[in-house]
Write a structure and sequence with these properties.
CATH superfamily of the largest domain: P-loop containing nucleotide triphosphate hydrolases
Strand order of the largest sheet: 2-1-3-4-5
Number of helices: 18
Radius of gyration: 32 Å
Distance between the termini: 72 Å
Strand content: 5-15%
Number of domains: 4
Structural class: alpha/beta
CATH class of the largest domain: Alpha Beta
Oligomer: single chain
CATH topology of the largest domain: Rossmann fold
Shape: elongated
Helix content: 40-55%
Length: about 450
Amino acid sequence: MNASVLIVDDDKLTRETLSRALSEEYAVYTASNGQEALDIIGKGDKIDVVLSDLEMPGLKGLDILERVNALNNSPVVILITGQATIESAVQAMKLGAYDYITKPVNLDRISLLIEKSLENKRLKEENILLRARIRENYPLVNMIGSSPEMGKIMEIIRHVSSTAATALIEGESGTGKELIANIIHYNSPRSDKPFIKVSCAAFAEGVLESEIFGHEKGAFTGAVSSKKGRFELADGGTLFLDEIGDIPLGIQVKLLRFLQEKTFERVGGNKTCQVDVRIISATNKHLERLVSEGSFREDLYYRLRVVKIDVPPLRKRKGDIDDLAGFFLNKYSQIHNRHITGISDEVMAMIRSYDWPGNVRELMNCIESFVVLARGSQVTIDDIPDYLFSQCDVRHADDHEDGVLAEMERQTIMDTMRDTGGNKVEAAKKLGIGLRTLYRKIEKFQL
């Protein structure tokens, strides 16, 4: 379906000329005055671009621009005038006009402007849809887990999300710090503004300073043009400083000044910039310890720690493992188009007994592996990767094929199984063998 263009001009010749030139490529509507144009738009016909004369009897071009901009999914407005002034051009652009051109109209330029404006409109609409989808991915209930520890974290998130307070998230790698930062932003009044991320450990000091604060042309070798930093890109929204414990002392001073005054200068510049940015930071380090060691500024720490969220490792909130495992099983079954309905009791017992040094991220990747490798509709002991047996693999007992030793081994396994109430994970630990080894011996001795 062709895009639609509404031509608004009190001059009949201009309307007809533009209509003939554009009708082969676009669905063209015409109006001789501002009120007629608003009536056409109000009828419900989708208008993508409005080409309007600036000076007309009754409603003028700027009046149409203001009325149109108040609409949802408003069309792009390009203003045309025979009496161009700097003041009118500035006013038009401030009010949201896409462009401002003078008569006599160059038809090639008009065609190019319409094409560019439609592309700009399409990108804006896609951006709105993308932001809406992102917000759907980060509802307040997106933190999986029913443990008291997670309940406390969710309560803090609910309170801090509705404010503009600076927040610090501490926790081991893989515990979900970035997810928490996303949830806070996308449930805040800033959710329709940018959410910009930067890893403070990913750049050398000079590069990191430029990434955060931007730089002016010629500020250093290779700075062939000026560049906005993450602060300017995040204006009105949130800047997420990941791995804040790795930020160099020199940049800490500039960051502290921003938190105090909301101002900064680009690298190599002397113009003071002011932006409205909320700071959320995260670290897998203990910042108080870094403060006592002198590698992190105490005043900056207190500025960052207006609200502090401590995320415990998974080994300290094992009550969440079942919920997380079920969530990831459903998620990756859908992603990989696998009909996996559950995880066997033996595998779940092993999952619960594992310490998960990589935390939720490791569990997530592990469950994805289960889904991909599962031979049937349920994940069984034969589907899990070898490394998950490492805690039980203290030593591997030799397989004895016959005789007295074999009978002793059989009896030992039977006694241990009885002592543990049939819990194979605990039995394997007591016997000092791997869980797979235990299963093989159970089958061998027909226990």
